[in-house]
Amino acid sequence: MFIIYLNSVDNAVRMWDLNDTEPQYVFAGHTDSVTSMCWRVGSDDVLIRTASFDGTVRTWFKTTEHEPCCDVSNTLIL
Question: Model's pTM, two decimal places?
Answer without folding.
Answer: 0.72
